């Protein structure tokens, strides 16, 4: 069988090379909220954030971390003969809790065959003592740590419009502090926010590259019912780009992105019944295939336009 040639750095392949076999992410759902929902930073959350957060595939958060891990692992082990796992704290803000609760949750996730903890949070919820504890845990348990930061866009005017409750500065601060501990960082971006243009897509790629981020997860904007964005959408106050334009934006983003950054996904997904708009009524994998097909056709690849760092204006003088 002819091997499929992929024009960007694919996460599943990266994991296989790093751990010697396929690794499965196990989602963990904690009973947490977010400072942008409970009034600490703002009420109601980011304009696109629904009641369930990001974890629609999760088990109930009434189960302990260990119960969720063991239940999911035993299912995946049977189904796929899986041997290695990443404990993925996915929903809402997983560092927004007391230090003692945080430590307990992290410890509980370190069961046999877990090779990594992946912790999703906001850039303004990164604190030194939490990072120090993770460092200690990673030594004790021989596991790697990845921090997933929601950013969505580097355009601070758009960040304000979607009520993120932080700007680019808090993101840069978080990245620099996490990197001192040697942890890897995954950044979430939405490439089709209604106020962003292609120039913002390019800047997203440039800033992630300049900061030597490790992973990126791209999402297409989906509009959930009962969200601020949903209301704006129903009133016709926002317009969305076409699927073809989204494909173009992803390709543009990848071309400007450092070839060292691993791509965890090219497009998001959400249950149809909860949304007013999702992925132009097209399966996520069809859009992924379209992006890959277009890149191949054009001889495009990740990093094709990655030539703007390291004093690039001096090149001709050397
Ligand atoms: S930071 Fe995340 S959890 Fe908090 S409101 Fe925004 S999208 Fe929702």
TrEMBL record:
SMART domains (alphabetical): Elp3
Coiled coil: none
An annotated Gene Ontology molecular function: catalytic activity
Source taxon at top rank: Bacteria
Essential cofactor(s): [4Fe-4S] cluster
UniProt-listed Gene3D superfamilies: tm_1862 like domain (3.80.30.20)
Transmembrane segments: none
Key word Metal-binding present: yes
UniProt cross-references to PANTHER family, sorted A to Z: HISTONE ACETYLTRANSFERASE-RELATED, PROTEIN YHCC
Name listed for the protein in its UniProt record: Radical SAM core domain-containing protein
Organism: Garciella nitratireducens DSM 15102
Organism taxonomic ancestry: Bacteria, Bacillati, Bacillota, Clostridia, Eubacteriales
């Amino acid at each position: 069988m002819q091997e499929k040639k992929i024009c960007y750095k694919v996460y599943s392949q990266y994991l296989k090379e790093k751990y010697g076999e396929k690794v499965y992410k196990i989602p963990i759902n904690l009973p947490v909220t977010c400072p942008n929902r409970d009034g600490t930073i703002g009420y109601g959350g980011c304009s696109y954030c629904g009641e369930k957060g990001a974890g629609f595939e999760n088990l109930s958060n009434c189960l302990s971390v260990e119960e969720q891990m063991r239940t999911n692992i035993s299912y995946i082990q049977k189904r796929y003969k899986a041997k290695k796992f990443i404990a993925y704290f996915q929903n809402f803000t997983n560092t927004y809790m007391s230090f003692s609760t945080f430590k307990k949750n992290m410890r509980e996730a370190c069961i046999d065959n877990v090779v990594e903890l992946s912790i999703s949070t906001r850039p303004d919820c990164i604190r030194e003592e939490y990072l120090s504890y993770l460092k200690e845990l990673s030594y004790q348990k021989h596991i790697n740590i990845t921090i997933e930061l929601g950013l969505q866009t580097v355009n601070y005017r758009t960040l304000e419009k979607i009520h993120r409750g932080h700007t680019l500065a808090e993101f840069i601060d978080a990245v620099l502090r996490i990197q001192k501990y040697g942890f890897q960082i995954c950044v979430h971006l939405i490439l089709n926010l209604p106020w962003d243009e292609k120039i913002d897509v390019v800047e997203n790629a440039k800033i992630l590259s300049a900061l030597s981020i490790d992973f990126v997860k791209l999402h297409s904007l989906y509009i959930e019912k009962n969200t601020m964005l949903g209301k704006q959408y129903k009133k016709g106050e926002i317009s969305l780009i076409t699927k073809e334009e989204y494909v173009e934006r992803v390709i543009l983003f990848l071309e400007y992105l450092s070839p060292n950054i691993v791509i965890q996904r090219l497009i998001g997904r959400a249950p149809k019944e909860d949304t007013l708009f999702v992925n132009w009524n097209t399966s996520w994998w069809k859009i992924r295939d379209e992006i890959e097909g277009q890149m191949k056709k054009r001889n495009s690849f990740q990093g094709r336009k990655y030539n703007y760092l390291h004093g690039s204006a001096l090149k001709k003088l050397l």
